[in-house]
Amino acid sequence: AVFSGVLMAFYRTETGTRLENLKTQEQFAVALKVKAISDPLTAISGDLLFFSQQNELGDYLNSGNPALLDRLGQEYALASKRKHFYDQIRFLNSEGIERVRVNYNQGTPVVVPDADLQSKKNRYYFEDCLRLAKGEIFISPFDLNIEQNAIERPFKPMIRLGTPVFDAAGRKRGIVLVNYFGQDLLDRLLAA
User: Fold this and answer.
1) Which of 21, 52, 167, 184 has its CA 20 to 30 A from that of 96?
2) What angle do CA 93, 129, 58 make, to 5 degrees?
3) Over the stretch 104-150, which tens digit does the pLDDT of each residue have?
4) How far apart are the C-alpha atoms of 117 and 171, rounded to whole Å?
5) Between β-strands 157-166 and 138-139, what pairing exists: parallel, antiparallel or unpaired?
């Protein structure tokens, strides 16, 4: 009986130690995954707030001068080329019409011609983003990119981040939106 009691106490101690070690390992693994997700989303949020306050965009919102949209497109193209993880960077007006869109284009960013810009007024991300207050950021769930009302192939998992933009009088005039390559985030999670 004494031997059984000692054996049972040892078993409980050993089991408790193993459970604590397993719990610690799993907490560490979860912390790594959280960091793998939060680091890029934090960086993208900073970029997005910068895009929403660019001089070219502010000047356009206050003056309506369409020449400023060309300059804004060039700024977005430069950011796209340097960042490598934005499939699209866009400014949409308050009606959901793309006014500027830059496509990453496999590392050679292209400013999309006006004739090819689309309405996104019925897309959930536009509506959700437009409801936000100044400085708030919308983050979408993972989904697939849709162009011209069809899922783009090959499939591109996306996460969209957006924020509303305001003119000098404080009127909401649209949103700035980035399409973040979701595969980048999936790769970070697998590597963590």
Assistant:
1) 184
2) 45
3) 999 999 999 999 999 999 999 999 999 999 999 999 998 887 777 88
4) 24
5) antiparallel
Taking the CB of residue 141, how many other CB atoms lie within 10 A of it? Answer: 10
- pLDDT for 1 equals 66
* Alpha-carbon span 129 to 147, nearest angstrom: 19
Mean pLDDT calculated for residue range 163-178: 97
From the centroid of its chain, how far is CA 160?
4
Calpha distance 130→122 (Å, rounded): 12
If one counts every other C-beta atom within 10 angstroms of the C-beta of residue 74, the result is: 15
Residue range 61-94, pLDDT digits in tens: 999 999 999 999 999 999 999 998 899 999 999 9
E strand spans, the chain: 86-93, 98-103, 110-111, 138-139, 143-144, 146-147, 150-151, 157-166, 172-181
Q: Phi, psi (5° rounding) for residue 65?
A: -70, 110
- Please give the angle made by the CA atoms of 100, 101 and 102, to the nearest 5 degrees: 130
State both tokens at 159.
Answer: 């996460």
One-letter amino acid identity for 110?
V
What lies within 8 Å, CB to CB, of 82 at 6+ separation is none
